[in-house]
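User: quick one, fold this
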Amino acid sequence: MAREPKKCKGVYERVQGSGEYYIRYSDSTGRVRREKAGTRGMALDLYHKRKTEALQRRKLPETIRRRDVSVGELLADAAEYVRNRYRGQRLGADNKDYRYASLNEVLGGYSAQSITAQEIAPALSRLAEKRQWKPASFNRNKAFLSLAFRLGVESGKIDSNPVRFVHRRHEDNDRIRWLSADEEKKLRAIIEADYPQELSAFDLALHTGMRRSEQYGLTWDCVDLERRQITIPRSKHGGVRYIPLDKTALSALQILRTRGDGTGSVMVSAESGHGYLAGHPLKTPREWFQAACRKAGVAAFSWHCLRHTFASRLVMAGVGLRTVQELMGHKGIAMTCRYAHLAPEHQLDAVSRLDGWGQKSPTDTKTGTGAIRRSQATPVEQPQAFLQ
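Assistant:
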């Protein structure tokens, strides 16, 4: 006859004969806890471990009773966070952040508590290959995923953020695409011929350097035509910034003001078309701008390149980088320094000062020896010389 296993208090089966054992014990605080352990041997080992921890006054990890959270839930929280915090954020068909759908498709079903960086990295690489992401797109999606895990840690849903161990990809974004004078002439001619109602939008972008989301989200209460200033209440980095208006930008705004009653959105349609009536708020210039660029023969040019053109022309006109930074609304000077190479005359003036270095005689120096003698005077002599 087979011997019956010795009974152990605290180890039991919920369903007799199922083979699934549970343990019941009191932790270091006296609270009665129950855990599923698996086989009887595993249950005995876990029971003795928990009893030892209770005797050592060690607290149990908080994850014992924690609800299992999926990566998809964290992504949904991050999408809501971004939508509430940042203006002009692109949304997908599901009214969530544009990065949500693709990430949720490949990672949404994973457990957020147990997924590792070794699982995340190849999943992101496969997704990048499938969607033909450039390094910048890969990094933006990785950043969004990392944000989701960081918010999960802050809310207590998970313990750590494994995305921080996934390496970024190098972005080769040193090349600045800006509009040359000849290209502007061709593009302007096409806009005047085919899209004359959009010329004011083109001029406003070219002479203010506003981001597309700032321009197409602008309302008239943020425009002061008398002071010639636009106020962006919340820019990309969360702060307020002010944009001065030159004559061209001011004229463009005055034209735009005639399309409505001067309230609400600044960027509205001038005439009926594309499924909406005149005066309808516009969200993007894509419906006409890319077609105009193709017809004008301006290749590899987007609406955002008008912002690059604004900064490039300021630098080439001799405006200091610090001023350009303020006009562009850059958070740091490093982003503005990408335009520094467009001012070669300043760099040439700097290196030209080295011409003839070491060939001048001591008498050619601007500082005479008298200044040196005065600096070497004793503390008593210096006040006397000053009084004379």
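User: anything notable?
Assistant: The beta strands are 11-13, 21-26, 32-38, 223-224, 229-232, 241-244.
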